[in-house]
């Protein structure tokens, strides 16, 4: 990996890491980027998980049997059953995403001004900019009692949030540069560990955190987000004292 000593790195594309500005267009753009990338990963992952649920499979067999009895056409009955099943799973996905994103279940800062939210003393949001375009972001805030950690409320624990890199800028070290900046901030502000939670369907993010020395400490579930099943969350931790960031 090409390590960066500063916040600017040149590969095929050049980018700079800086703090989120108090600019309404920029704030809206960053939030849209977070929601779009998170939704992209979750729509396919959550819908596929829905299709594998025993309840959905049993309902699909019942629908197929009824259709076949009345239509007498195997292919037509099968096609209608598949379309209905996928539609049910998509409704489940969109319901959960809408409820999660707009009722602060998944994102506590949803509906708030991100600059104000991250402007408090021990919080920050950084963005990566390339050719005057925001291409990535990450946020740090202190842990609150609602965060996915057994040690709720500890002043020494930071929560890493909203790590997202636009697809065309991935595998260029942008996430590493953002995380490096965020971890330096955490050390300067006397945080001793960083935790984060990511859902079971966000495989690329999980692989990234494993690779960079974050350790999975536990699972939790959102049992009221999606009507068809519980969404498993993986909670990761990085100890800032032992230098385990790789
Ligand atoms: C995970 C993610 C942040 C990685 O960003 P990135 O800029 O591509 O990562 P980097 O280029 O800094 O890569 C750093 C290291 O992680 C590895 N890595 C990155 N993505 C990986 C993946 N999907 N699988 C395995 N390893 C990965 C790289 O190979 C690199 O390791 P190396 O230096 O040993 O080769 C990016 O894929 C992403 O934004 N995914 C979607 C995130 C999302 O849904 N966010 C919403 C959260 S609210």
From TrEMBL:
InterPro entries: Acyl_CoA_acyltransferase, GNAT_dom, NAT_camello-type
Gene3D superfamilies to which the protein is assigned, alphabetical: 3.40.630.30
Alphabetized CDD domains for the sequence: NAT_SF
Transmembrane segments: 50-68, 74-95
Top-level lineage group: Eukaryota
Pfam families: Acetyltransf_1 (PF00583)
SUPFAM superfamilies (UniProt xref): Acyl-CoA N-acyltransferases (Nat)
Entry protein name: Uncharacterized protein LOC106159074
Gene: LOC106159074
């Amino acid at each position: 990996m090409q390590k960066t000593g500063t916040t600017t790195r040149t590969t095929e594309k050049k980018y700079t890491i800086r703090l989120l500005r108090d600019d309404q267009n920029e704030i809206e753009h960053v939030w849209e980027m977070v929601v779009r990338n998170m939704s992209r990963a979750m729509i396919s992952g959550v819908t596929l998980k829905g299709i594998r649920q025993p309840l959905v499979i049993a309902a699909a067999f019942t629908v197929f049997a009824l259709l076949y009895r009345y239509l007498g056409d195997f292919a037509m009955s099968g096609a209608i059953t598949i379309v209905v099943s996928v539609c049910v799973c998509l409704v489940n996905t969109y319901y959960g995403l809408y409820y999660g994103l707009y009722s602060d279940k998944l994102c506590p800062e949803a509906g708030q001004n991100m600059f104000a939210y991250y402007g408090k003393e021990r919080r920050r949001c950084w963005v990566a900019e390339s050719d005057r375009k925001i291409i990535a972001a990450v946020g740090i805030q202190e842990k609150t009692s609602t965060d996915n950690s057994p040690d709720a409320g500890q002043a020494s624990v930071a929560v890493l949030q909203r790590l997202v890199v636009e697809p065309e800028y991935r595998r260029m070290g942008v996430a590493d540069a953002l995380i490096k900046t965020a971890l330096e901030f955490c050390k300067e502000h006397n945080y001793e560990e960083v935790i984060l939670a990511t859902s079971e369907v966000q495989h690329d993010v999980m692989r990234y955190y494993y690779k960079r020395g974050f350790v999975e400490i536990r699972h939790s579930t959102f049992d009221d987000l999606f009507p068809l099943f519980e969404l498993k969350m993986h909670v990761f931790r990085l100890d800032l004292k032992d230098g385990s960031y790789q």
